[in-house]
Amino acid sequence: MQKNLTARSIVIVVVILLCVFGIIGAPKSMAELKQNWQNNIRLGLDLKGGSHLVLQVQVQDAAKAEADQVIDRMKEDLKKQNISWNSIDRNDPQVVQDADSIQITIKGVPATQSSAFRSLINERYSDWVLTAVNSTDYAMRMKPSEIVALKRDTVEREIQTIGNRIDQLGLAEKSVQQYGRAGDEYQVLVQLPGVDDPARVKELIGTTAVLEITDVKDGPFASREAGLSAHGGVLPLNTKLVRSIPRAGSEGEQWYLVGRNPVISGREMRNARAGQDEFRKWETN
């Protein structure tokens, strides 16, 4: 019995010594001991202190942005099909709880073109449900499954974006995760042990960035004025001039004429990687 207790005691002491050695190593001075302790013992928010933020994701803004893109594309499609209309607008949900109420209203479609209009909407905008208000006016509501997916994707992208931006602070113990009931509250919990400047954190993660891929119509031009001059001082409908980021080895700025409506926005893109097609030309997948 005594031998068993002695053996167990020796094992316990050895394990404790190994753990202590793993934490502090073999310091040669008190300063090195403190440094090893700080590097290897990571205190959480409850012990170390820091910033604890709960952020509300404005999913209704994502719904409005999606509706705006649909409206822009719809106007172009209707013009191509020579279908007339008087106005195309959306409502303006102001709070998260009203995101599901997003609606597009189309007024003044001639009754003689209603069949062509319905066919276009059903073919090109299958994520929306078209309802006739009267013989010339229509309402479009996003399908329930699509609005749920939109809100879920918005929260997931927000979590990823916030995490990437916090990485700029060089923090190793950050925690960014969904907070509250999924599919209901749309909040993000951010915990940053050791960061005592929540204003700086909010400034960093509150910066808005939108990824869009647009169609290049013309260019490059040496200046914005040159781009305007090339089109008689008036840009074509639904286009704009943008300045490109100079590449290595290039001289001077370059301007391009691009479409106002993005071909692809951040919502459609899940990931991107470079690859080669069957002709060994580079492409983005």
UniProtKB/TrEMBL annotation:
One of its GO terms (biological process) is protein transport. It holds the Pfam family Sec_GG. InterPro entries: SecD/SecF_arch_bac, SecD/SecF_CS, SecD_1st. GO terms for cellular component: plasma membrane. Residues 155-218 form the Protein translocase subunit SecDF P1 domain. Keywords: Cell membrane, Membrane, Protein transport, Translocation, Transmembrane, Transmembrane helix, Transport. The chain crosses the membrane at residues 6-26. It comes from the Bacteria. This is Protein translocase subunit SecD. It comes from Candidatus Acidiferrum panamense. The lineage of its organism: Bacteria, Pseudomonadati, Acidobacteriota, Terriglobia, Candidatus Acidiferrales.
